[in-house]
Amino acid sequence: MRIEDEIIDLGEHQLLLRNAGEEDAEMLLECLKTTCGETRFLVKEPEEIDLTLDDERKFIHNQNESKQNIMLLGFVDGEYVGNCSLMGMEQGRFKHRVSLGIALYQKYTGRGIGKAMIGKLIEIAREHQFEQIELEVVADNQRAIALYKKMGFEIFGTFPNNMKYKDGTYADAYWMMKRL
Q1: Model confidence over 63-119: pLDDT tens digits?
Q2: Which residues form the N-acetyltransferase domain (predicted)?
Q3: Rounded CA gap, 47 and 105, in Å?
Q4: Residue 120 pLDDT exceeds 90
Q5: C-alpha distances in angstroms, 88 versus 42, 56, 69, 75, 138?
Q6: Residue 152 region, left (φ>0) first, then alpha (ψ -120 to 50), else beta?
Q7: Which residues of 8-40 are buried (b: 16+ CB within 10 A; e: fewer)?
Q8: Using CA atoms, how far apart are residues 32 and 26, in angstroms rounded to an integer?
Q9: Which residue ranges make up each domain of the chain?
Q10: DSSP label at 90?
Q11: What angle do CA 123, 3, 122 make, to 5 degrees?
């Protein structure tokens, strides 16, 4: 799915949201490795990321050509800050649902960027007649949970021991959903 580039005013700064291009593959892989190393809230360890540039280019191409998926890149004052996405489901009984994902470099959290990105994804989901947006969030990620609640998401369930870390500890996750 593609959109027109959009600039969102964040007060002192501007956020540019645009579709990823295949030329962004290297930047996206580096971001994934970095953000996975910056926080325990994402699903992989940096060393688990074994995608090739060709794999990432194909993924970007497929996202852009999809009718139910979208990936947007965020740039603040020209600097890449992270990305967000919606992933729809192909099966007929699930076509009304879409999953939300977002990852920002830690130095850009708490600045309203995530809120603006999620707001845009909600708008896109409504335009494409999705009926609900879902996400999973680590139960310890209180800042993200507070933001999701502020954006209208509710907790509908808990996945105990959803993730197991290298040190042997576990993290629960919440399943959150927003009805559109």
Answers
A1: 999 999 999 999 999 999 999 999 998 888 999 999 999 999 999 999 999 999 999
A2: 15-180
A3: 17
A4: yes
A5: 20, 19, 6, 24, 21
A6: left
A7: beeeeeebbbbbbeeebbeebbebbbebbebeb
A8: 10
A9: 6-132
A10: -
A11: 15
150 class by beta-carbon count within 10 Å (0-12 exposed, 13-18 middle, 19+ buried) = exposed
Contact 76, 66 (CB under 8 A): no
3-state helix, strand, coil in the chain (%, to 5): 35, 35, 30
What are the tokens at 14? 């501007």
Domain 6-132 sits in which CATH superfamily? Gcn5-related N-acetyltransferase (GNAT) (3.40.630.30)
Alpha-carbon span 129 to 100, nearest angstrom: 15
Buried/exposed code over 117-133 (b: 16+ C-beta within 10 A; e: otherwise)? bbebbbebbeeeebeeb
Whether residue 11 contacts residue 116, with contact meaning beta carbons closer than 8 Å, is answered with no
Copy the structure tokens of residue 112.
Answer: 């309203």
User: Nearest-CA neighbor of 128 among 97, 101, 91, 92?
Assistant: 97
- The secondary structure of residue 167, as a DSSP letter, is T
Structure tokens at 1: 């799915």
Residue with token string 């990852």: 103
